[in-house]
Design brief:
The chain is α+β, with helices and mostly antiparallel strands. It has 4 helices and 23 strands.
Length: about 375
């Protein structure tokens, strides 16, 4: 008699399940505790730092305008080059102002002649007055003529000085050293005094970096006895590190030199400024960057890798290995990342043995097979 294939398969499965249950009931071999990697936390002196995004601005910037009106005669620079203070940039057609200067010089000469005549006339009148041979009214008239001639000379000399200034102002020079922009007005165009912007110049060395700090961070910095937001105005300076958008690690170092005198009510932030040397003129106003600011005094910190920290509802926890390799859950309070690790602000003393890898195989109160490793003092940024 032949049995169906499905009936045979079912019979085999039932026999296997019955055998497994029997072995389990008789105390079969137990599974060993799962192997996990454990290590001591890194304990060393650290300084907490915070990153802020900001933008570069020129220390000094000037919009170049002409002080006299006239037609633009010449441009003496190339667009985008570096100029020095005192370099000639533009020339306004000086011929009308030279004519005015010559007229002013002639007016001064004429006023000097009239003054000399009035002076000699007054001297003769004074001699006649001592002998009583001149009327008082005539003497007063000659004295008035002398004073009027002297005032006219002063006015003519003032007009001459103004004419000399106007001729000098036809040559527009750079008031500072830095990089110049392009010319905004071409030769032959009319330039209005104090209105038409011809170009602008930005100083690049040193260069300033402005960034905003939130209220909570500002309060934390202000409570530090050292570091934080202390500036040169307080007798000390803070070093900051700059990281550009195409860099992984910051290379340039600067000094925090300014903290604004109030918080912005709309954003709840306060503006700070750092100054960087820029000898190579690489940094340009308008660039974004990230500065790292010291946020604490040096202290002995406890560090763990991020993968050693788990979550239990709304709190962060780590798994500490206790007696008989039993794992216990311990809540911790974490801080920022330093040297590739996460700062443990509270919850550990630094002497514990902590599970650093294989958290998915760990259960509180269950035993493990610990595999001890040593964490390096500084970790690579990629977490390896």
């Amino acid at each position: 008699m032949r049995f169906p294939r499905s009936l045979i398969v079912s019979s085999v499965l039932l026999s296997w399940i019955a055998s497994a249950n029997l072995a389990l009931a008789q105390g079969g071999p137990a599974q060993p505790p799962p192997p996990v990697t454990v290590a001591k936390p890194v304990v060393k002196d650290i300084v907490e730092r915070t990153d802020f995004i900001g933008r570069f601005e020129a220390t000094d910037q000037v919009d170049i305008r002409s002080r006299v009106s006239g037609y633009l005669d010449k441009v003496h620079f190339q667009d985008g080059t570096f100029v020095k203070a005192g370099d000639l940039l533009f020339t306004i057609d000086p011929r009308p102002y030279r004519n005015t200067l010559e007229q002013a010089q002639s007016a001064v000469t004429s006023s000097q002649v009239r003054l000399e005549f009035a002076q000699s006339d007054l001297d003769r009148a004074e001699q006649l007055r001592r002998t009583g041979n001149i009327a008082d009214q005539l003497f007063d008239q000659r004295r008035q003529a002398f004073l009027t001639a002297k005032a006219e000379l002063d006015r003519a000399q003032a007009a001459l000085r103004q004419a000399q200034l106007d001729v000098e102002f036809t040559q527009i020079k750079s008031p500072l050293s830095g990089r110049i922009s392009r010319k905004l007005v071409s030769e032959g165009n009319l330039v209005n005094a104090n209105e038409t912007i011809l170009t602008n110049v930005l100083s690049l060395d040193p260069i300033q970096f402005y960034f905003d700090v939130d209220e909570r961070s500002y309060l934390a910095y202000s409570r530090q006895a050292k570091g934080g937001t202390k500036t040169s105005a307080n007798g000390e300076t803070n070093e900051v590190v700059l990281t550009l958008t195409d860099e992984r690690l910051g290379q340039r170092k600067g000094l925090l030199d300014f903290v604004d005198n109030r918080l912005d009510a709309a954003s709840g932030t306060i503006r700070l400024r750092a100054v960087f040397e820029n000898k190579d003129m690489f940094l340009t106003p308008g660039l974004f960057g990230r500065v790292t600011v010291g946020a604490s005094d040096p202290y002995q910190g406890i560090l763990l890798p991020d993968e050693a920290i788990g979550s239990d509802q709304d709190r962060r926890v780590v798994y500490v290995v206790g007696e008989n390799n039993i794992v216990n859950l311990k809540p911790v309070r974490i801080g920022p990342r330093i040297d590739g690790y996460r700062v443990i602000r509270d919850g550990l003393t630094g002497n514990e043995t902590v599970v650093v890898n294989g958290l998915v195989r760990v259960r509180p109160g269950a035993p493990i097979t610990p595999q001890m490793t040593t964490l390096p003092p500084v970790r690579e940024r990629n977490g390896s």
